[in-house]
Each structure stands twice: as structure tokens, then as C-alpha cells.
Amino acid sequence: MALLHETDFGTPASTSGDRVGVVVDGLSVQVPTGTSVMRAANEAGLAVPRLCATDSLEAFGSCRLCVVEIDGRTGTPASCTTPCEDGMVVHTQTPKVEKIRRGVMELYISDHPLDCLTCPANGDCELQDMAGVVGLRDVRYGYAGESHLDAPTDHSNPYFDFDASKCIVCSRCVRACDEVQGTLALTVEGRGFASKISPGGLLFLQSECVSCGACVQACPTSTLQEKTVVQLGVPTRTVLTTCAYCGVGCTFKAEMRGDQLVRMVPAKSGRSNEGHSCVKGRFAFGYATHPDRITKPMIRETIEDDWREVSWTEAIAHASTRLKEVQAKYGRNSIGGITSSRCTNEEVFAVQKMIRAAFGNNNVDTCARVCHSPTGYGLGQTFGTSAGTQDFKSVGSADVILLIGANPTDAHPVFASRMKRRLREGAQLIIVDPRRIDLVKSPHIRAAGHLQLRPGTNVAVINAIANVIMTEHLYDEAFVAERCEDDSFKRWFDFIVRPENSPEVVATLSGVPAEEIRRAARLYGSARNGAIYYGLGVTEHSQGSTMVMGMANLAMATGNLGREGVGVNPLRGQNNVQGACDMGSFPHEFSGYRHVSDDVVREQFETVWKTRLQAEPGLRIPNMLDAAVDGRFKAIFIQGEDIAQSDPNVKHVKSGLESMELVIVQDLFINETAAFAHVFLPGTSFLEKDGTFTNAERRINRVRPVMAPRNGKQEWQIVSELAAALGYPMHYDSASQIMDEIAELTPTFKGVSFDLLDRVGSVQWPCNDERPLGTTTMHVDRFVRGLGRFMETPYVSTDERTTRKFPLLLTTGRILSQYNVGAQTRRTENAVWHPEDILEIHESDAALRGIADGSQVNIASRVGQTLLRAKVTDRVPPGVVYTTFHHPISGVNVVTTDFSDWATNCPEYKVTAVEVRPASEHIQIEPEEVAPALVRMAKQIAENIPAAGDASQAIASHLQRFWTVQMRTELRTYVASHPGEFSAELVAALDQVH
Amino acid sequence: MSGSTTVYVPRDAAALSVGAEEIAKRVEDEARKRGKAVEIVRNGSRGALWLEPLVEVSTANGRVGYGPVAPEDVTSLFDAGFLDGAHHQLSLGVVDDHEWFAKQDRLTFARVGVVDPLSVSDYEAHGGLVALRKALTMDPQAIIDEVGASGLRGRGGAGFPAGIKWQTALQAQVGQKYICCNADEGDSGTFADRMLMEGDPFALIEGMAIAGLAVGATQGLIYVRSEYPHAIGALRAAVLLAAESAILGRDVLGSGRVFEVEVRVGAGSYVCGEETAMLESLEGKRGVVRAKPPLPAVEGLFGKPTVVNNVMTLASVPWIISHGASAYRDRGAGRSRGTQVFQLAGNVARGGIVELALGVPLRDLVDGFGGGTRTGRPVKTAQVGGPLGAYLPSSAFDVPMDYESLLAIGAMLGHGGIVVFDDSVNMAKQARFAMEFCAEESCGKCTPCRIGSVRGVETIDKIVAGERRRENLELLLDLCEVMTEGSLCAMGGLTPLPVKSALDHFPEDFGIESVEGSTRGATA
Asked: Cβ contacts (< 8 Å) between B445 and chain A: which residues?
């Protein structure tokens, strides 16, 4: 389409339900009470000249261009700051106001460079437009007077310049930083004519600026300007698409000049971001054209050989032949694949279809395994489906926000800005996190509580919060009675009020004072709208699934579900984690979370796919790697995931990969995993993809290509060709055909089509006959599973314990400027903010070990060690260290272990016992005897599934549902040879499954 | 009696600036030397600045004054027996009978210079707390009705009826409300707020407490400019004393009602005297003007309903409540009721405070009370209402000093400051100064004020230099119109007032015969 100009109404929309009628230049218009005269005029199709007003910001009234005359009122009020009153008669064009406007513009231009013709914003400048609109013909003051024409340009930010000589001091940038982003990095320095915009008296790069781009977007002139616009020129057309970084899923206008992407501008029409962005989505897209991109298929015989570029035909033929050979030699189940949360729904669907239909097994898993698989399990068990309950906008109605194990200002910045706006309006925030994240205290934000718990004790703390709410009778009896299961509630009630769940007992386990737990519980329990938001600090634990259920219990007990402002909301790490899960990427589930053993569902797929499908679950990623080390799993197709950097206990991952005969990697770059690959299939970046992403609010957003695939093919095309070469005919003409198939086979997607998305922008699933435009809030009148189900959540401490040898707990997280393994962001200018991973260590722990701030340290766990630079800080409490894993050189996941969530195998990234020493001191690691993974998991399952009721049946059902036959057989053999080591329930359970 | 004599030596900043501290010390030393029992009271100033330091002695006939007293006069005062009120060449007689005071009508300033500013008992002895006690028995609406009926208008300069403002704040259905006293007295040639705060701080505190009772506010804040260290000290001390005496606190005069006052100090910005900029500053932000609406009485400090009133407005309230609205309303002219505390300054022989009913002719103030210029040269002009007020030629001095009469001749009363100039003043320089002042003090938020003031200085310079005089005069008038009509607040909006009045009344100082004649035929 041509360059998309979204209408700017000048001031924000009023949310009032009442309406008033005004007459503007003879046109009658009805607007909500509280609407400005300016906005009313705009809604009547009359544009009042303006410079300091824009509808993302509150009216400010500084430029004085928008003055109007109103019958019965003296003077010339500014239309932006004057609210409409019923019966008001407004004149926007009178000789008087026109003269004032010309006079104001004359003043502006008397202090502005006259370089329009060579200005980067020529043609895209509001000042230029307004000078024309008001009819300025002459600047009678001349240009010899005092001016700012010599003001310097700040080039320090890698993405935008700040040319102070062009600044009209409208404060839109300052207000955008305050109101939209909430960082408050900008201010006006000085007063009067000396007023100037300043990032706190520093250069932009040194300042608190987080480069979200809101100021650049708000600037009406070329003062704050993207460097790409300076270099390439003003864009001429727009492609509306979706960001491919985090799970917020911001809608962007990719603004093009010919075939060249000039800039990414957040779209106001995007419902998840409503015109806002962060440094990654806004600016860090340069990786797509980075010289490291691989655009030709490559193969090699062994991983010692050099890569050889080949044609697509040869690559597909080679890959299919080798896959068939492996299957012929080692059996049908010896191969499998991993889908990527970075890819589109259509691409993911194609890969899992290839595996189930062409590989002929269910050995498909996804990278969500290592992040949000417990969300799927926990919310599925309690509510009946694996998804967040709200849209992002909902946080604007929350009164108390419980933020657990998430750091949105770094990892989900655009959502964080929404949350901060609500907090500035007075909502209360309780943070549960071992580390003092920025939201604990930052400008205009102060958390009401920070439960700084010991890593690994989430479940104990959430139980204690629930204990207070139940014992102090702060729960919503009516909601529980009407909406939830009576018997599961009663069982849970008896469990949760037990003394072991009291804050006083939990205080000793978690390190959080009982009074703080009580205070937090009372705040959440008595909130009009209490909302829970959580991240990987919840899921990436040995009790990740239990914790998700603990939060779900809490929300049900307090009636905080089924309306705006409440809910249980996972903050998804990747752009399409939700979608990848929805699309049937798990070994036990088809799309829409339906078990492979369900005959009705399976037959439906078999009919459409015209092939027989397996009814037994396949292998999960860690199972695949274990089986590979054991010599039973020999070939893998990996779609856009760098498991050799991102997955825990990298040593184990690598030995798994090394044991395979065929590793096929589909990716943009030669990554750590590709070092073990035999076939490299170049993939497409999001700028080339055509399809959909589903964000953390279940919102299905369109991804539209802004450039031709640099590798020559869409990824689903490559996968289809590979499937076909394997002997399973699979062909699509377009991505939209794949979505049609998804819709046909998935009840929650029944109404979804590209046509619908192109018409309405986006929809949140379920989208079906009942809800043709999707579902904003889940579980409004009933839960997906009918009645809400309370789950008992006993706290079981992790097997990962500190010892004398490894006395510290390592926990990991993300930083704003980098994304995950950094494959993209490291290949952009974002590297200036985070050139390396840093280990945060408390000063007492540092002093004890002779570690100086900024020095290199050796960090070791029982599985590995690596070098990092230390930062001595009080952000982490004594006993806890923290780092990120954005840089492969740091090898942080060399240290993390393969301990994992009992229900889903999600790795316990957030808890690793470590020791830290100055780099010069070597740490001796002796391999520790650890029980086999299966055995450990079986014991965890037995401990986590409560003994009340028929525990053995519950255990049996879990093993049946999630484990493969092979795994159960192995466990049975082990149990038989180790009598007395296992609980009676587990032994009994094994008798009940085949 | 103990035989001790009470001697009053002002501690008012104006008196201190002319040596009052040294006088007090010398009186004490001299009395000790002579074995005389003397109690020195450091009162405020009576407001006759031309007589400061004005030393008073309490006698059976009343307080006898001597002034202006120089340090070297102290010995001779003792020699002359001034402790008994005896004659001396500096004798002024009984101060209350002195013509300059006797002709005034002091309501708001009744206690200033009379009482010990930091004595609660002295305050009560002179009629203090009567109004607060009365107000505690009144319905909030009754208090507001009384203030409304008195006709009291905002004495800060805007002249908005206090009763209406209070009514708006009363009607706001919000828990927390505030009373903010604007004590950022930044107008050149004004000092009434300062003198009251130094000389009778309890009057302000009492007025604020009554305002709090009226609108339902429990917290008061006084925003006082940093250039007033003595006033800040007096206010802080008075607030502490008021709390000790339960005039302020959780239980105002035993009524169970709550009202507390905090003194906050500005940071040197003229614009912070504008009420919304003051609120921004009180919130800890840059002192930048807010757009209205919303009015502060609806959404003020921290977004809560806030009554912002000037020191004089609030300090007038106790008199109105204790004496009744009609007594106040009976004074004044037209819609300008009550008294105004005028401040005579600049090149004037007898400068100081003159409190009189509104409507007094300007000439009575300048020539009568002021006694003409200090230099003895003819009066050329007086600027009325601060640096944003109009320059009036002496031919216009018959104008009654009230809101409406001044408005009718293109001038304004403002905060009641009158700055007198003799015939040596160049009005083009004064006009330039007005623009310069605006450029110096503009907050920088709105364009007409931020850029316009700078261009105004430049354009006046061009006119004076004779550069394209006709076109630049036309441009200056256009600029004045843009600033008047387009500015966000009175800073930019009123700056053209002194400029245009200087042009209108004294065109010759700009090198032109008349504005009209000079712009006729200029390009539109």
C-alpha cells in the first residue's frame, strides 16, 4: 500500500459514556464528554492546525497554533486543552485566529533553519506542513536575531540523531518518554528562550534513554530522526506487519522506499502495542540483511567437513535420502524434529505435519518446552486451556498487580509501559522475584511489596499467599461456589490452610518475612481487580507446573477471572510461543491441545491428511537428546532454534547432537547448533515471511513480507518439498492455504483466515462461529473446562541444592537490548548496550571471594564452568548470582543443569547451585552421581501429585498422557531392579499403564 | 510595674536593610550601660519605609515614634529621654496619630508593625483567632457565603472572586483537598506579602485555616520565594508556634478539626507566581505553566481540588469573618470591594504600605502619600500592577484605583504595586525592559512568550535605532497581539501592556510622533 498515514486526532479519545453535541464551523458533531474541541473538530473532518498536540499524549497547550474562537467566550482558547461543552459553537477559521497562527508560525520560523529542501524530513515534517497551512509568507523578524541555529547534533545513539537546531521545544518527545514509555529520561533544561530538550544533561547514549523510539515518533520535525531516514530518505510505502521479537507481538508499519526497508514504526492500529515499541522491534532489524546471513542450502558428510553450497533440489534430495536411510536402519521412531517459536504458525504447522505424517511418528517438540510448557500444563489442568486469560489492555483496569518471575521492562518492554502507566495512575504492584528488578523502584514507580524469595521457593510463597487469603477469609465465596468444582475446592482448601503453608513456616523456607507475605496477600485478596502476570521465573523450575496451578488457584479463589483487569497472564518470551504450542508442536498433542490418543480427533486429521497417524505420544526434546546419547535417536530436523546455546547443560546437548547421524538445521545463521549439522537449510527472516504469529494474549497477527525471501523460498515451501521427497505428498500454494487447513482442523481457529485478519487487523482465539471476531477475555461465564478446578500444590524443594562446594544459586534472565541467544540482536547496533553477559553478585559474596567489580570470574556448577565479568551489586541478595545468556561466548548454559519441571521437562534454568571464584582460581568439578533423568522425574511426579484421592491413578494417567511407551518400559525395568526406592503409589501406577 | 520600658525595633527585612539590627543592639547596650530596664520587641514594619528604622517606645500616651534612626542617634535618643517619649529631632509623635498612618484604613495590615509577630498572646490581644473560633462554629457554606458577600477578590492580581473559587473547591467530591498560599511575590515594587508574613504571620495562618474549614481541606502549603529568607524564618517559626498552641494540627482549637500548614520555598522563578506553575513547583517539577482548564479548584495540587490564593487574600479573611462581610463590603468602589494594600516604590519620596479602600485616585497615592519623587524632579509616569502593568502618564493619575476603572484605561491593578519614575526615564528603554524581563522569566512553554519576548527586545532595538521604523513598529504591534491573544498565561499575555502603554503615552521616546501616525500606510 502507499505510505500509511494513521489519523492523528490531536488528543486522546475520551472514554466517557456520556455525549455532548458541539457545532464546529457549522458542522454538528456528537462526542463523548471530555473530548477536546480539537478532537471534535477532527472527528467532524476539520483539521485544526497544531504542533504540540498528538493523540498519543495528553493535551499540553504550548504551541498556540490551535487557538479557536468560541461563541460566548472571550479570547482565543487553545482547542487542544478546551473540553467540549454541550451546545458549544466553535469557529476554527476566523481572521483573528488566523492572524495569531501566522504570528506564532512566524516566531517559530524565525528560529528554525531554512534548509527544508535538504532536510531529511522534507515532505514528512509537521512544521513544514503547518507553515503551509497557516499561510506564512514572510518572516519579518529576519534571521539575524538570537537563535538556536548553531545548536549541536547528538549522534551518539546508534539509531537516531538529535539535531537540536531544528527543535521547536514542543515537548512531545519529553511527554512521550513520560506518558507513553514511562522512562522519564528526557526533560526540558533551562527556561524561556534557553529551554532545550535534554536527556538529563547527557548524550542520549549515556542517558537513561532506552531507545524505544517513542520520542522519535512523537517529534514533529527532523530534530529526532532515524539515521536510516537521514541515509536513505523519506519512505514512500507501508507494509503492515508484526514484530518477531518477544511475545507482545507489536504491529509495525514497515516503511519502505522502493524495496528498501527504511524504518519500522509502531502502528496505532496494533491492538497489542497501540502505537508503542521498544528498541528491538523499532530499530534492531538490521540482522535480516547482515552479511552473516546464509542464503544458500549447504550440506556436508561429517561435521568435520567444510560446508558445500548446493541447489535446493540437491539439498532436499540429500536430506530426504539420509532421513529415509536412518529410519530404515534404526526404525521409524529414530528420527524427529523441533519446531520454532520464532516461525509463523503456518511454518510450524507444516513442520509438525511433516513429522507426524511424513516421518510417521510423534517425535515433535518445540522450544516452548524450555520456556512455557508448564503454562500449558498448569492452565490446562485448572482452566481447561493453555493460554493467558486477558488482552494486554486489561492491565489498564487492574488495581493490584502481582508480578511473579518476570522482568517486563527488559523482556516485554511495550507491555511494561502499559503496566507502568497504570501504576502511575495508582495501581499497586507486588513483585515476587529474587532479584531487584527495575519495577521495584524506578521513576514514578514504587512497588508496594517485593517478596525477594530464595530461588526455587515460588510454590511455597504462592501457597502462603493463598493460605492468608483463605484463613483471613479474603476469598470470593460466590465465585468459587458458582464457577468452580466443589470437591476440588474443598480438597484444596483443606490442603492450603495447613500450617505448613502458613507465612510463618514459608518465611523460613523462602527467606521472605511472614509479614511481607501477609501484606501482599491482603493487598491482592482485597483488590477490586487483582491481576497476575508472570514469566519464566515461574515456569523454569522443577515445580514450574505446580506454580502455574498455584497462581490459577489463587485467581479462582479470589474471583479474579473472567473480566477486564484480572486474570492469570503468562508473558511469553518469544513472538510465537503461543502459536507454536497452539499448532500441535507437542509430542502428545495435535493443534488446539488435543491428545494424540483421542481417536475422534486423530481420525479427523487422518482424513484430511490422508495418512495413518500414531496414537502414542512421541519424545520431548530432552528425551530425544537422552535417546540420542543412548544410541536410539539418530536424526533430527531443527527449525530455527539454537539448542546448543539456549538449552541447559549444553555439554549434554552437544553430546546428544554428536551422537546423531543426521542433523538438519533450518536457520538464518550458522549458529552453535549448526556446528553439529549435516544439512543447513537457509531460512527466512520475519521481513520475508508471509503468515501469522500468535502473541501472549492469543492474538493472531499477520506477518507480511516486505522483501522477497533472500533464500528464494518460504520455509513452509521447503518443508513441504522435504515431506514430498520423503514420500508424503504435501503441497501448498500459499501460507493462507495452510491457515485454512489449521482452521479446518482446529476448533479454536475455526473462524480464522487471512481474509478475516486482513479485514479486521487481528483476532484473539478462540475465533469460531460463536465468536467470529475472537475472544478478548477468556472464561467469562464459564471455564473452558466447565468448572474451574483447584489443584493441590504441595511445595517440593528442588533436587538442585546448594552445597559447601556450590554455595550460591545462579538464576538467569534477559536484558532489554538483547534477545534470547542474541543471534539477531548481536548482529545489530544493539550490541553497544550489552557487549557481553555480566554476572551480578552481591557485595558480601564478592568480598568473601576477593572478587572486584568488573573483574573476570570463573563460575562453575556440577556440570560445567565458564568465565564471566562480575558486577558487584545489591540487586541480588546474598547467596544469589544472576546473569543473562545472550552471548554464546559466555556459555552460561554450560553451567545450567538438566534438572527440570516434573510435569513438562521445562528446564530449571532459574536455579543452579554454583561457585564463583576469581578467574585465576580454577574450580575442580568432579562428576556427581545423579540418578537417570527418567527416574528423577518419576520421583518428582510422585511427590508433586498429591497423595489425597487416588494418587496412583493420577500418576498412571500422567505417565500415559505424556510419556512414550519406551520411557515407561525403561522406568519399569529400573523400578523392578531397585525395590524399595520408590513410593507404593508410583509402583502401583506402573502396573496400571502399558 | 517592673519599670521596664518596651522599645519596638522592627526586624522587617526593609528595616534591617537600613540598619535596624545595629539599632536594636545599640539600644540594648546603651540601656544596659545606663541601667535602664528595657524590653526590646522586634516587631514588623509599620510600612512607612521612608521612616525606617522606625523605633517606637511604649508610653502612657501610646507608642511614640522616632525615625529614621541612625546608629549614631541612639545615644542622643537616650540623652533626650526617648524612653519616656520625650522630644528629639527624630520625634514623630504618637505613631497612630501621624498623618501618614491616620489617613489609612488598615484592616489587613492592622497588626503589622504593631504586634510581636511571633507572640500568640499578642496576636490574640489584637483580635487574632476571633475569626477562626467563629468559623469553627460555622457551616462551611456559611463561611464561603460570608467571604463571597464581602466581595473579596484575589489580591494576587487576577481579581477573581474568592468566594466563587472556594465554592468550586467545596463542591468537588474528593477526599484530599489543599489550600495553597501563593507567597511568591515576584513583582518588582511589591512587598506587602513579605511584610505581612514577617509582621503578622498568624493572620495568614488563621486565614488559611479558615479557608481549609470552608472547603474541607486539611493541608495548607505556603509557597514562599527563596528571596524572602526573613519571611521564611518568620513563617516557619509561626507554624511551629501555631502547632504548639493548637491553632494548627490534628485538633484545631480543640474542635477535632484538622488543618496543617507546611512552608515550601521556591527556587527563583518569577513564573512560579503563576498559580499552575506554582503547583507544578510544589509537586517537585519544573515550574511550568499548566493549561486551564482544569482549574486548580477542581484539579490542582497532585490533581486534587486546590484553593490557590495570594497572601493578601487569605490574610484578609480573618478580618472579614470577625467583622462581618458588610463591614468589608462597605468599603470600595463599584465591583471592587474592601481595601487594597498599595505599595509605593521606585522614585518616590515617601515609599511604603498604604492600605485604603479601593477606588482611591492614583494621584492621592503618588503625590499625597508618596510626596512626589525622591529626586524632586517631576513625576513622568508610574507603572501600576508590577512589571506586567501599564505605564500611566501623570495626566492619567486621577484614575480611581480599582479593578474596573484601571481596566477601562488599559491598565490593571495587579498586586497593588506602584512604581514611580521621574522625567529622566526613557520609556523606550522601559518597554525594552518589559520584553527583556519576559525573556528572562518566561517558563518557555508557549511559543508567543518563549520566542516572542526575545523578538520583542530585538524589534524595539530596531525601532529605537531607526531601522525600518514603520515596518518594525507594525511588527511590534502584531507581536503584541500574538502575545496578548496567544500566550498560555499572563506572563506572555500581559507583557505587551507596559510595552504598548509606553508606546501610546510616550511615542517620542521611541523616536516617533504617535503610534497611529507611524504605522499608517505600513504594509499589512
From this structure: 60, 62, 171, 195
> Interface pTM (ipTM) of the complex?
0.94
Distances (CA, A) of B137 to B132, B142, B213, B313, B321: 9, 10, 10, 22, 12
DSSP E strand boundaries for B5-78: 5-8, 38-41, 55-59, 62-66
Whether residue A195 lies within 8 A of chain B, CB to CB, comes out as yes
Question: Could you say which of B291, B458, B478 has the minimum Cβ distance to residue A78?
Answer: B291
Residues forming a β-bridge with A337: A364, A637
Does residue A797 lie within any of the structural domains? no
C-alpha cell at A670: 550458522
A679-736 per-position pLDDT tens digit? 999 999 999 999 999 999 999 999 999 999 999 999 999 999 999 999 999 999 999 9
**Contact criterion met (CB < 8 Å) for B488 and A67:** no
- B468 pLDDT more than 90: yes
- A81 interaction partners in chain B (CB closer than 8 Å): 291-293
The full set of domains in chain B, from first to last, is 5-96 (3.40.30.10), 120-329 (3.40.50.11540), 335-422 (3.10.20.600), 427-519 (1.20.1440.230)
C-alpha cell at B153: 477578590
Contacts of A598 (CB under 8 A, 6+ apart): none
Beta bridge partners of B221: B180, B262
Picking from B451, B453, B485, the nearest residue to A111 by CB comes out as: B451
Q: H or E segment at A530? A: strand A530-534
Average pLDDT, integer, range A841-862: 94
Contact B481 A169 (CB under 8 A): no
Cβ atoms B228, B185 nearer than 8 A: yes
Please name the residues in contact with B89: beta carbons below 8 A apart, sequence gap of 6 or more: none
The DSSP secondary structure of A779-801, one letter per residue, reads: SSSSBTTBSB----------S--
Classify residue A522: in a domain, yes or no.
Answer: yes
Structural domain tally of chain A? 6
Does the structure show a pLDDT above 80 at A947?
no
User: Residue A455 half-sphere exposure, CB side, CA atoms within 13 Å?
Assistant: 33
Q: Measured between CA atoms, how close is A26 to chain B, in angstroms?
A: 24
Judged by CB atoms within 8 Å, which residues 635-664 of A form the interface with B?
A: none
Beta bridge partners of A238: A255
Residue A728, domain extent? 298-371+577-764
For residue A251, the SS3 value is strand
| Helix residue spans in A84-207 (DSSP H) | 95-109, 126-134, 172-175
Find the residue in B nearest to A99 (Cα).
B482
Look at residue B1 and tell me whether its pLDDT is greater than 70: no
Torsion over CA of B246, B247, B249 and B253, rounded to 10 degrees?
60
B522 touches chain A (CB under 8 A): no
- Residue B281 at interface with chain A, using a CB cutoff of 8 Å: no
Tell me, yes or no, whether A367 and A378 share the same domain.
Answer: no
- If asked whether residues A185 and A45 sit together in one domain, one would say no
Is the minimum CB–CB distance between A60 and chain B shorter than 8 Å? yes
Radius of gyration of chain B (CA): 24
Q: Of the candidates A110, A141, A195, which has its C-beta nearest B444's C-beta? A: A195
Q: Under a CB-based contact definition with an 8 Å cutoff, are residues A746 and A592 in contact?
A: yes
Classify residue A358 by its DSSP letter: I
Residue of B nearest to A96 (CA): B485
How many angstroms away from the CA of B148 is the closest CA of chain A?
24
Rounded to 5°, the CA angle B277-B283-B284 comes to: 95
Q: Residue A395 in 3-state DSSP?
A: helix
Cell of A125: 515534517
Segment B77-121, tens digit of pLDDT: 999 999 999 999 999 999 999 999 999 999 999 999 999 999 999
Q: Which residues pair with A364 in a beta bridge?
A: A337
How many degrees, rounded to 5, is the angle at CA A597 between CA A594 and CA A598? 55
